[in-house]
Amino acid sequence: MYVFKIFINYLFDDITKAIVINALAYTYIQKVYLYTPLINAFNTYSKKEKLDITLNVTILTPNNSTSYVDNYKAVVDYLLKKKSKKYDLYFYFSTNSKNYGPYLLNLYDYLPYDHIKMYDPGVVSTSCLYNNKVVGLPITLDISVLYSNMNLLSKYEKPIPKTWNELIETSQYIMKKEKEFNNTRLIAYNGLFNKNHGTVSIYEFIKSYSHSKTLSHPKIKSEETIEALKMINNIKEKISSELDFLSGDDYTIEKIYTGEALFLKFWYLQHPPFYKVSAIPGWKEGITGSLTGGYNVGICKHIDEHRRKAAAEVVKFITSKEVQKKYVLQRYIYSAINSLYDDEEVCSIIEYYYNEKYYSYFSEYIFGNKTISEVIKNVDDMTRFYSLSLKTEDTYVGLIVFIIFVVLFIIISLSIVFLFIKRFKSNLKFLSNDLWFILIIGVLILMCSFILLYGNLSVIKCHLKAFLISFGFITSLIPNIYEFIIEFPEDNKLSIWTKNNKIKFILIFLAIDIVLNCLLIISPYKLKDIYLIDSENFQKCIISTTFGKIIQNLIMSYEIIIILIILVLVFMEWNLEKIYYDTRFILGAVFMDILSLIIYNITNKIEINNYIAYNIIFVSNTFILSTSNFIFMYCSRVLISFIRNEDAELNESFIKRNQINNSVMKRSTLSTHTYNSSSHNSSNKENINTAKRRASELSNKILSYHYKVSKS
């Protein structure tokens, strides 16, 4: 009979071309009423309008599924990621929009614009969006409320409490009186701090300590949070217990229907008339911690287009203003359509309108032995990303580093005055004043890159930091390359062109660096979140694409090439009398640059799980790189002016070096000549010897430049 019925239904569906839209939902058994009337209403509407669409909803509850919310989330995750077409619609908790978003349709593509816009923009923006796409609409809002036992409050002529102190006082009074009547099953307050809802309960309890309705949620490290935690502990000790605080949802729901609780905190449900619901109390009257959650409905993107359109008809109906109003009036739901609450009929019926780690940390204070300060520090570590700051509440490192930067920046900037003091000019003649300006500006740009470590990290900051480092580094070295080329021991086309085109020469080097950094924008940096257990989280800039890594390596290669050019030029001009000291100073700077580049690459490859250590290494390396260039290239020349006379010469040293040069060159020439006279035995040998001869000639040429003491 059962098989026959399925066959008949199949034939009927095929004939009528009806589409069965399958949906999956999860709710408490007490809230099944939320779906049943919606299903019936749509199917009636579909039949009346001849839509040929039937809605079928599979409802999971704690009674018919193996677990609670987390299991439902895992089921939906599995189905969506496997691109399952089993369900066309998913009813889900609004907090999961970001998780399910990649697998749900953008409702703007299937629903009228005005239909979506009638929903509260705050609710939509916080619980319905994924990548600026509306992937779900709320069919109902879940509101946390306080259930007050009106039989007992009326009996003892007590009002519904509006503050936590009133809750404690009323509870103590009534519980004492009821014990006189041997009412031992009565509890005062459950708190709802179990694992299912503990995170939300703690969050909204802290929210209930906001200074005013308009202020945002108190910061973790604030007096409000401390006072809230103290009050939670106070309530547990005076009118409740750890057992009541940790009791499960079934226990709370049972108390709602038996009336064996004076006050209960839970989500809004249809309830017996002896309970009245109101907003969660606050630290003072008018402040509440009540939070709004809810259930969204979204369309699976893996289904066929004709099923998408049919599913959209279902969503359009159950989220329409008429349907939402109908079920608000019947006290089934609270709606996210703001205009409904301007309706007199609706207003007359309405009474009141982190996860596991977050919960576990606060539990260590509420149920354990941790102090408030320890708990707040742990939660604060978990809920934010740390970075350098001028504030000293976390560490003095940021302030100390900034003070060092300011001092160095001022010293380097003011050092420009030495260019205009006669006593120092003779030792600063290696570069012209404009080139010294460029060098010092490069040093300052390089040093300023560390400022981007302060405050919240962003992709723009990542690119700016990388640009300032490479641009500042190149800018500080270009003047030296320019001067080495024009001071080359022997005039050549390059040295002549460079001398006559100073600005062009400099701009070419800078342009290459700018172009490479602009190419990096095509494959931008990403922020890598470093989450640490019982420590401070922080973020790093990373390049994850192949193209980005290629450009990053090109920038590094460009910097290495410039260093190699300087090293070759320093070697060939090592003994030039005019720049004798300059070559040695610049060699020292280049060695420090090489060391800094090595440190930079090592720190990028190793895993550093401490934001202070990570930032100190970067700052130290940046300061070493910039200040070493400044000290070796500029400051050392100023210091020499203090320790030796301007006219001190090293003629004897240069004469000796010149003699060594001549003897070496003679030996080299003789060796080359002897080699040449004995290298004509065969054609193969001749080719080999020709290559060797050319290499020998090149090395002799380089050595000849190396030992020259003056430009020829």
List keywords for this structure.
single chain, 712 residues, alpha+beta, 28 helices, 11 strands, 9% strand, elongated, disordered N terminus
Q: Mind explaining what this structure looks like?
A:
The chain has 712 residues and is α+β, with helices and mostly antiparallel strands. It contains 28 helices and eleven strands. Helix 24 (546-572) runs antiparallel to helix 25 (580-605). The chain is elongated and about 110 Å long. The N and C termini lie far apart (111 Å). Residues 1-16, 348-355, 646-652 and 672-683 have low confidence and may be disordered.
Number of helices: 28
Q: Assign a percent range to the helix content.
A: 55-70%
Which range does the strand content fall in? Answer: 5-15%
Report the span from N to C terminus: 111 Å
Q: Name the assembly state.
A: single chain
Give start-end ranges of low-pLDDT stretches: 1-16, 348-355, 646-652, 672-683
- Total strands: 11
Structural class: alpha+beta
Radius of gyration: 39 Å
- What integer is the average pLDDT? 81
Based on Cα principal axes, name the global outline.
elongated
Q: The biggest beta sheet, please?
A: 7 strands, mixed
